[in-house]
Amino acid sequence: MTYRTGTYVVDVRENRLVQVIGADEGRVQVRRPGGGLEWEVPPSALRLATREERNAAGLRPYQTGCGRCAELEAARRVAAGGGDAAVSGDATAAALTHWVTEHCGRGDEGRR
Which helix (H) or strand (E) holds 85? Predict the structure, then answer.
């Protein structure tokens, strides 16, 4: 399975909640939410974190409290309904890029 950057998953080898920060040649780079040391995990040792697991870790759901997230999500929904795959893809990429750069915790544990 392939996971997008920013996705919260569980490393089943240690039952540890982690965040995907990249992937390369059959390995997934992860770290604890909010930062810290990074390590590589085989994709087969990961599963998606449940909502309950994310909530228990104090992670806020996608788009909570961010006006820019709301704007980008609205634009993405309009683009998705427009029938142009390129426009829809660009809007999705813009929303995801904003989410990863602003809310994934690199260097600022207050952003989530």
Answer: helix 85-103
Q: What is the DSSP letter of 110?
A: T
Q: Does the model's pTM come out above 0.85?
A: no
Residue pair 64/27 in contact by the 8 Å Cβ criterion: no
Dihedral sign, CA of 26, 10, 5, 75?
positive
- Can you name the residues that pair with 24 across neighbouring β-strands? 27
β-sheet bridge partners, residue 79: none
Contact 11, 46 (CB under 8 A): yes
Write the pLDDT tens digit of every residue in 19-50: 999 998 889 999 998 788 999 999 999 999 99
Q: Which tens digit of pLDDT belongs to each residue from 62-103?
A: 545 678 888 888 888 888 888 898 998 898 889 888 877 887
